[in-house]
């Protein structure tokens, strides 16, 4: 089948989208991705094509490059700028997402029909439903997050969230299959009346990724991912001060305007997935941090957890319901209380105290917590669509 994937994230950095596309082409489907920020010369893989629709650069002051955190500023002018940003962010997000949808619709106007429209996240769902109707195509909704229960910067918008949930349910009800990342989010979507909801976790492929033997004790702990609010990085910095004999590493792209005191922490730029593997193996423990500030976090299973499993290293993860269930079921490491640096430091020490045992448990879980295992859900969903 000819599959059109819609995604508003930068395609080259969205491992879930690329893994799904590769799994489908391996089954004989062709996949075209319309996303954003596709680099010149980017090769998404055999049988996959990709093109960009641009999106505005956000509310960064002029001259601020992407992925660079602004230095802390003070004074009346800075306070007014932060207050204005807080007030206007919800409308700005909606405008930029709507502009992407409008531009993508114009890009696709007059194109040959696809058999399946695969809408990644709510901000592509309306366009996906429109295209599926125009083309008499099947619609797949891929909910990477519990969209209207995310913790977002900016002023609260409770009425817009309620309206958004109703719209999401109406549009997703037109999908033949709904995919999501955890059983907790799937249960929420089913409770809204969505019929065929399947869990496709953010696991990673194991092929050619056999982890090396690790030492008997870790050298430190590392966070790899977006550096910004909601990631509980303040607890990571606080734990670093309590564990001076261990390396503490934070690696990833920084949100503009996010301020974090990184005293005692090594801050590294964004890395490839393979480099993150090596970082985790070098320090020995991966931290999977989230704040307990929204329902989406409580029901999340971040790809950082499964990336650590692929690398073969234990984790220290936030004690939130979905993470709690998986970490304890497989013995992948220890849990800490979000927002509590002392709890995070204690959990790192507990992993170090039985490091060999935790490493063995992670290695034992790898085949089940892998993309080779979970991609069967996606392949099966598409087989059902083809047979229908």
Describe this structure in words.
The chain is α/β, with parallel strands linked by helices and 388 residues long. The protein has two domains: 2-61 and 91-203 and 372-387, Rossmann fold (3-Layer(aba) Sandwich); 220-369, Glycogen Phosphorylase B (Rossmann fold, 3-Layer(aba) Sandwich). Helices cover 43% and strands 17% of the residues. The chain contains 13 helices and 13 strands. It has helices at 15-26, 76-108, 125-135, 158-172, 183-191, 233-242, 273-283, 295-298, 303-311, 321-330, 341-353, 355-365, 371-387; strands at 2-10, 30-36, 48-52, 116-120, 138-143, 177-180, 197-199, 220-224, 247-251, 266-268, 284-288, 315-318, 333-336. The strands form two sheets. A seven-stranded parallel beta sheet has the order 3-2-1-4-5-6-7, sandwiched between helices. It has a six-stranded parallel beta sheet with strand order 10-9-8-11-12-13, sandwiched between helices. Strand 8, helix 6 and strand 9 (247-251) form a beta-alpha-beta unit. It is globular and about 60 Å long. The model is unreliable at 58-72 (pLDDT under 50). Residues 44-66 are annotated as: Disordered. This is Glycosyltransferase. GO terms for molecular function: glycosyltransferase activity. InterPro entries: Glyco_trans_4-like_N (IPR028098). Keywords: Glycosyltransferase, Transferase.
